[in-house]
C-alpha cells in the first residue's frame, strides 16, 4: 500500500525554565524544486500585493503551547500582525492556572515573534517570551509553530505547521524581577 504525508513539520523538542525569559532564533531556508534545502534564506518580509496596509504582511507566525492530555492551550505567542490587533499591550495576558496566556508584544520590533529582515538577520524568526509569560507550571507540554502565508490581498491564506514537538518547562527556584 502506498503512503503519502503532507505533514512537513520538523520535530524540535524544546526545554525552557519557568519564569525565565525564553528566546529562540531560527534561520529559515528556501526549498529547492526537488525538495532539498537551499543555501538561500527565505525572505519573509513585505506586504501582500494589492494592499497598502502595513499589517497585511505576507508571512505571519503563531506558536501555541498546550497541555498534552487535554489539549487546552496554555500560552499563545505570535507576531504582532497575526491576530489583526493594534499594538495594544492590554492584548497581552500572562498565563495563570485557569487562564490561557497570550503574548503579541508591544510593537513591530517587539513582538512575541519577529520576522527579521535587517542585513545579516534576513530569513530569521526570533521568538521572545518575557519571564512573566513563562509562568507555566513545570511539566511537559506539546507545541507547534504555524505560519500563515498570503501573497496577495483577497487570496486565501495557506497555513503550514513548520515545527512541532514537546515543550518542557523545568521548575525554577529564584523568581527574578524585571
What does this entry look like structurally?
The chain is mainly β and 178 residues long. Strand 4 and strand 5 form a beta hairpin. It is built from no helices and twelve strands. The model has no long low-confidence stretch (mean pLDDT 81). The protein is globular.
The secondary-structure class comes to mainly beta
What would you call the shape? Answer: globular
| Quaternary assembly | single chain
Query: What percentage of amino acids are in beta strands?
Result: 35-45%
Question: What's the number of domains?
Answer: 1
Number of helices: 0
Number of strands: 12
Low-confidence stretches: none
Percent range of helical residues:
under 10%
Summarize the structure.
The chain is mostly beta strands. It has no helices and 12 strands.
Write the layout of secondary structure elements.
Blueprint: E1 10-11, E2 14-17, E3 22-27, E4 29-31, E5 37-41, E6 59-66, E7 73-78, E8 101-103, E9 113-116, E10 124-129, E11 139-149, E12 158-170
Parallel strand pairs: 1-12, 2-12, 7-8
Antiparallel strand pairs: 3-10, 4-5, 6-7, 6-11, 9-10, 11-12
Amino acid at each position: 500500500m502506498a503512503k503519502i504525508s503532507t505533514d512537513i513539520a520538523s520535530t524540535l523538542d524544546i526545554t525552557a525554565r519557568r519564569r525565565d525569559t525564553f528566546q529562540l532564533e531560527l534561520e529559515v531556508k528556501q526549498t529547492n524544486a526537488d525538495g532539498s534545502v537551499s543555501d538561500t534564506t527565505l525572505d519573509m518580509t513585505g506586504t501582500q500585493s494589492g494592499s497598502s496596509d502595513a499589517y497585511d504582511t505576507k508571512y505571519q507566525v503563531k506558536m501555541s503551547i498546550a497541555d498534552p492530555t487535554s489539549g487546552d492551550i496554555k500560552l499563545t505567542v505570535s507576531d504582532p500582525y497575526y491576530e489583526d490587533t493594534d499594538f495594544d499591550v492590554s492584548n497581552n495576558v500572562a498565563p495563570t492556572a485557569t487562564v490561557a496566556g497570550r503574548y503579541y508584544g508591544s510593537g513591530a520590533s517587539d513582538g512575541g515573534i519577529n520576522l527579521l529582515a535587517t542585513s545579516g538577520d534576513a530569513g530569521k524568526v526570533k521568538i521572545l517570551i518575557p519571564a512573566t509569560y513563562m509562568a507555566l507550571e513545570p511539566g511537559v507540554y506539546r507545541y507547534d509553530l504555524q505560519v500563515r502565508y498570503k501573497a496577495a490581498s483577497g487570496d486565501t491564506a495557506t497555513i503550514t505547521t513548520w515545527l512541532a514537538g514537546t515543550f518542557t518547562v523545568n521548575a525554577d527556584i529564584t523568581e527574578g524581577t524585571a
